[in-house]
C-alpha cells in the first residue's frame, strides 16, 4: 500500500491545497481532504474530499482514525500532530514546518504555554500573514516526502 496524504482541510490555505492537488496528480499519491464543510476538489482518481459532521475535533478524530504509519498529515493543529506522530505518521504544517518525534514535545509545550498566556489576558498576536516563502517551504518539504515514498 502506498503512503497517503491526509489534509486537515478546514483551515488549510487554498494555495497549499493547490500544491497538494498538483502533487497528487503528478505522483499518483492518494490525497484525502477532511473537513466539516463541503469541499471542491479537482476530478482525479487520486484526490477526494471527505465531509464529516460539524463539532469539536470531529475532523481531527477522523484523520487520527484513518492515518497509518508512514502517511503524511498536513495540519497546523499541534495536538492533532502529536496524535498522528504517535501512530507513526508524519506531519507537515501549511508553512512547511515538519513535526516528528524529535520536536513535537517542544511544539506542544510552546502551544500550551501560549494558550495559557492568551487565557490569562496577555495579547500574543496572531501568526504572520501567509507568504510566498511559506508556500515554497511547504512545496519543498512535500517534495521530500514524495521522494521518500
Describe, in plain words, how this protein is organized in 3D.
With about 150 residues, the protein is α/β, with parallel strands linked by helices. It is about 45% helix and about 15% strand. It contains 5 helices and 6 strands. Strand 4 (about 70-75), helix 3 (about 80-85) and strand 5 form a beta-alpha-beta unit. Helix 1 packs parallel to helix 5 and helix 3 runs antiparallel to helix 4 (about 105-120). The radius of gyration is 15 Å and the shape is globular. The protein starts with a strand and ends with a helix.
The profile of the biggest β sheet is:
6 strands, mixed
Can you give the helix content as a percent range?
40-55%
Instruction: Indicate the mean pLDDT.
Output: 90
How many helices? The count is: 5
Class from secondary-structure proportions: alpha/beta
Order of strands across the biggest sheet?
3-2-1-4-5-6
What percent of residues are in strands? Answer: 5-15%
**What is the CA–CA distance across the termini?**
11 Å
The strand count comes to: 6
